[in-house]
Specification:
The complex is a heterotrimer of chains A (about 160), B (about 600) and C (about 350). Chain A is mostly helical. Chain A has helices at about 5-15, 20-25, 30-50, 60-65, 70-85, 95-100, 120-125, 125-130. Helices cover about 45% and strands about 0% of the residues of chain C. In chain C, strands 2-1-3 form a three-stranded mixed sheet. The chains are: A mainly alpha (about 160), B alpha+beta (about 600), C mainly alpha (about 350). Chains in contact: A-B, A-C, B-C. At the A-B interface, helix 1, helix 4, helix 5, helix 7 and helix 8 of A face helix 2, helix 10 and helix 11 of B.
Chain lengths: ~160, ~600, ~350
Amino acid sequence: MEEGLRRFIAVCVALTGFDSVELTGTGIAELYRATLEKWVGPVIAAELLAFGTEPPPDETVVRNGIMSDAKLGPVARNLIALWYTGLWTPLPSEWYLAYQTEIPNPPDITNAETYIPSPESYIQGLVWTAAHTHPMGAKQPGFGTWAQEPDPAPKGGRR
Amino acid sequence: MSEGQYDVVIVGAGIAGAIMAKELTRAGKNVLLLEAGVSTDMTWEGYESSLTTFYTSVNKEPESPYPNNPNAPQPDVLDIGQPNGTGYFIEIGAQPYGSTYVRRAGGTTLHWLGGCPRMLPEDFKIQTLFSVGRDWPITYDELERDYALAEMEIGVAADVEDQEYLGVHFPPGYVYPMYRIPQSYSDQFLGSRINGMEVDVNGTKRQLYVRSSPSGRNGIPNPHYVSPRGEKGYTPVGAVNPAPEGQQYAKDLGQRCAGNTNCIPICPIQAKYNALKTLQSADGTRLEIRTNSVASKIIIDPDSGRVTAIEYKAYDDPEVPEYEVKRASGTFYVLAAHAVENAKLLLASGAARTSGQVGCNLMDHPVVIRWGLMPQDVGSYRGPISTSGIEDLRGGPFRARHAPTRGEIGNDGWFWPSNGPVSTVTEGVNRMNLFGRKLRDYIADVVPRQFRIVFLVEQLASPTNRITIDPKWLDALGNYRPVIQYNIDDYSLAAMAVANRVCNQMFRRAGIEDWTDPNNGLHTVVEFDGEQFAWGGAGHFAGTHLMGASAHDSVVDSFQRTWDHDNLYAVGSGSFPTIATSNPTLTLAALSFRTARELVRRLQ
Amino acid sequence: MSKTPRGIHNLGDLRDYLDAAVQLELSVIPPYMCALYTIHPETNDLCQQIFRTVIVEEMLHLINSANALNAVGGQPILTGDAVPQYPVLLPDGEKSFVVHLDPFSTAAMETFLKIEYPSRPHGPERRLAALREERAPTPLKVMRFGHDTVGAFYEEIIRGIRRVVADLGEKAVFTGDPAKQIDATYYYAGGGEPVAVYCEADAVRAIEEIIDQGEGLAHNLFDNDGDLGHYFRFDQIKRGRCYQEGDRPDHPTGAPLPVDYERVYPMLRDPRLDDFKGELKRAAEKFNATYSILLTALQNAFAGERERLIGAVGVMFDMKYQAIELLKNPIPGTSFHAGPTFQWAPAREEHVRS
């Protein structure tokens, strides 16, 4: 796996609570890395990817370095929402105002709207996996499965 | 087939039009079917493209797989309550009309839930029994066999023993085509907590039960099934797949519901009935379908009052407002275009004017929406969107004072009330500042407990709830847009208050944590008796050309023939004099069988 | 030609043959699943449809074989040592082809055509790039019988049913518990309904349905339901063109069938758990646990707990999503992707549901 992608996935492991095989197994990690770069540019993306250490950063590092950071925090929250729901919501214009000098070719945000980058983005949304169900309208579970007692929800990822 | 040779010209390729087309062509009659919208979903590839459109739609509202066609525009949930000019409807009433429909081949069955309860026998005579509303010119017993035909055509899954309540009855030995769809674990859990709970509705005491809902979705066929026509057995009908012989790989899809939890807006495998299945089984050699053809005027011979043609505007590209005006002629004419579109067309043509009731009496089921968190994991967001209901308040003496109501229990978590589970993620990330494992655990804890129930309330026919037309408001092809005046009266509001109190009792008894927030910005709010409710529409349009016993106070007779025009029929839920509490599709399908039989008789 | 087929001479032989038939059907489903699931989403749509319908019908064949075995007093076993380990040898007298777990590829298609129409002469095997020395194929029980082709094997079963019934009488042969028969209440498939077997005629029909859907009775393009036989469905992929009515075998003249072998996850041939480490290994173990739950449910269903089959459909979907997750994961340090290993993994308590 290419190093940039490996780092991207490592950061996303810390942000989403899903392991690397699960994230790679969605097949959309590369698309999401491209989506990130499209909206925040390579410099800020690289700053976030710098947290993609091996092993992935612990909670305190993420909280201090990413989530509470004025620049990276909004980006990370957007990325989490993208992974979980398939939706990319435009970052606020104030954010762009503050960091435009760090974005070499800034995207046109005047008409930017919330969007779903690809059909798979919706289908692979992590919220459904986390909730032990399937995306509405995809990954059908089969006749009668809904009558069964739900799978006990395992805490903290893969059984 | 050249113009004028058709036995019947039908306007609208939804369920009513499809049943008419199938029954008439199979009886050897030649039929022309005019459809205002596109035919995208009639092929498997086209249907799949609608599914892809759904996947990439940010708002997964009922219309999301079926984008608006400016040449045959349709209402959209996102436009409700927006300023006039935003959406298709022009709203001039006290309340917004909360429902929508689809204008393309297949009609609104493309995004219906699939609920198939019969009406109660008492629903047909509420004026006689309770001195409110109107009576139907037919009885439950007169419609009984047509109900069975509709259950065959739609492919309804239910067990008779669950459905015999409040006077609903079946012929001895009757079974539905398929066994009931398994009730969700969430339903079973709720039932274990509330079954037998006694409620007092203005002096009428009732015990409530979580009851399996009859569904137009494929389950396990009942080997004992015998159709009203004597055919034994039932084979579930899968996806429409008009590919060449041997290449129809998709036809086995949808032979059982696979639990996609997406009946609305699109069943990915067509396990849920849609009208395209009926169209596919019409006699294709006698049926001509013209899509992209918007009926714009009924041409009437002023002397005889008979219809001589339907004028329609044929266009190529939905995005280009260029059209050619054409006429279609036949012996009989059937408007099956939807309650709103039928009324619009009648009004635009000055047709069926005697009673003055065309467009009036618009009804819906105002829906009280409640939501909360179950005390344990019930596996929300699994199964068909609804597998059970609460039917015990659908009838009774209280109807003299307020409306009856039917509970529909959701398997779709908080999707309807609060755009869950997307809103749950937003809450977790942006407000609770969760990420990583803690976010994942939060979702795993909350989302599988999300629960909603809605109560559908009857609305009486009122002349002031109405569709009109106004030359100020036209669509891209110059056809009228519906101007809607709508309100909810105290008869229904009182029942909404009853339903709300029943929910309080139910939540307390089941231990459901109440999260209902009428003011979350996603619902219309009404107040009654000091209570506030979130409410919405049910998509159940009715009454705009209602049937009755006399030409003076109704638009059509019991065969859905317009009193004023001997060869013109207006079919669908627009013919209902009362909407009662059942989802209207099964009843309008039954009426379609009745009308088709009458037309075959008259064509002999 | 290896040796003279053993043939069916008595009730014991018939049970052995039907037991082998169950294992044979079981062993072709995983290779078809690998081909299907290695195709990238939203590509090769028609190929995906073809594999999906074939797999559903192979499940039907498995059930028909199990019904027949149950009817003659046998007991279908699908767990433990009965689980095929890939690569496997199917009953071919020349032993000229081996069935692998492979990604969707021309080589895989060649093998599938041999499975579905084994009376064809078999060309030399093509080789895929390999991570490691190929493992020796594991023979299935059916090898013992020495038939040249799968078709001949099933034809011998039909003859055997008639022979044994003629010797012993129908009552003495069909002694199985009718409550173990799987019918349309418990399983459904587009290509037809399972044949519940209570007598000679049912048993013959159950086996004929397998032959019919595979290569077509009398080598017709279309089976009794108007569907293309499996052989011809696959042949369309090989030739990139659809059959239409009136076509001769090997000469499809219908619409082009687009095939893109590049839009495929490069799964390691015949993957096994040992090929993976860490999280990847855990994911592969999870798949095997799910597969084993399915096999256990099927076996229990055939043993009389028929309602297990309804839940088993759900487990098959779980397998699909878990397999696809593996297939999207590269194996670190290689050019291959991981994949489902289809190994028997007896379920621990907490894995069992339904």
